[in-house]
Amino acid sequence: MTLDTDALRTLLCERLCEEVRVDQRPDGALMLRTHFEFPDGDRFPIHVSESASGGLRLSDRGHTLMHISYEHDVDSFLDGTRGMILERIMGEAGLRWDGDRGALCLDTAPERLPETIFAFGQALTRVYDLTLLSRSNVGSTFYDDLADLLFSYVDEAQIEQDFRPDVPNADVYPVDYRIEGKNDVPLFLYGVPNRDKARLTTIMLSHFHRYDLRFESILVFEDQAAIPRTDLARLSDVGGDMISSLASHEDFNRKLLQRVAA
User: Fold this and answer.
1) Residues 64-99: pLDDT tens digits?
2) 242: Cα within 13 Å, side-chain hemisphere
3) Is residue 124 located within the same domain as residue 102?
4) Residue 174's domain spans which residues?
5) Are strands 187-192 and 216-221 parallel, antiparallel or unpaired?
């Protein structure tokens, strides 16, 4: 089949114009209607107003955090690891707080409104997806099994759990286990039971590299094959040796003892 490029282009223009529109509320405020929506089916309310610089401002007027508050304490949500990742998302997407910490906004020039709508929707989706980080792997014994295996190979005196390295904001970059390594180079060991932990570990190791921290790392998966390829690729770019599962005892022993101080 030969695709009719012009027909596809016309169809996209017509349908996007139909599906993305500007409505005026009874109070005079302008709101964009798009197909971005929360998991419960509510669409993102994207409000449009004039920015202080004379351009346009898109704002969610606090609805993203409001939806998060249905199942989470927002104050605690904005702290710790999730708070750190939220700041990173905001920096990457150009988001700012619209007033105090409650509403998220993105400023743009009027001629860049179409692409900014999609950028804003994607950014709000990433913010809401931080709720996934609080879902525990209920019933999993992975971390207990990892600790048992680690302490069976390495003396407890050489291990520090929940180690905070000497980097900015160290409290939000904990290392599962710091182990005394050879040549005075510490070994950081992370347990990786799922995709969320893989992403967090990528962020943490990237932060350490950014500040030229001297260390080596070993990443132990519950099931490496269950981690999406893209997440695994990002993690492999910043991480050291990988252990595919706790069942790989020989691999674990060999890679660990190669790096642990005698």
Assistant:
1) 999 888 877 787 677 766 788 888 899 989 999 987
2) 19
3) yes
4) 142-257
5) parallel
Cβ atoms of 175 and 163 closer than 8 Å: yes
The pLDDT value given to residue 199: 94
Question: Are residues 127 and 150 located together in one domain of the fold?
Answer: no
129 assigned to some structural domain:
yes
- The pTM score is 0.50
Distance of CA 108 to the CA centre of its chain: 24
Q: What is the tens place of the pLDDT at every residue in 199-250?
A: 999 999 999 999 999 999 999 999 999 899 999 999 999 999 999 998 888 8
**Which pLDDT does position 98 carry in this prediction?**
86
**β-bridge partners, 47:** 31, 59
- CA 226, 140, 253, 186 dihedral sign is positive
Helix H or strand E encompassing 254: helix 249-257
Same domain, 101 and 35: yes
212: left (phi over 0), alpha (psi -120 to 50) or beta: left
Are residue 155 and residue 208 in the same domain, yes or no?
A: yes
Whether 248 maps to a domain, the answer reads: yes
Q: Tell me which residue has tokens 């929506």.
A: 37
Biggest alpha carbon distance in the chain? 74
Domain boundary among 84, 111, 134: 134
Residue 226: give its domain's CATH number. Answer: 3.40.1350
Residue 3 lies in a domain: no
Phi and psi of 134, rounded to 5°? -95, 0
**Token match 């996934």: residue?**
132
Residue count (the chain): 262
Split into its structural domains, the chain has a count of 2
Residue the block writes with tokens 């743009």: 108
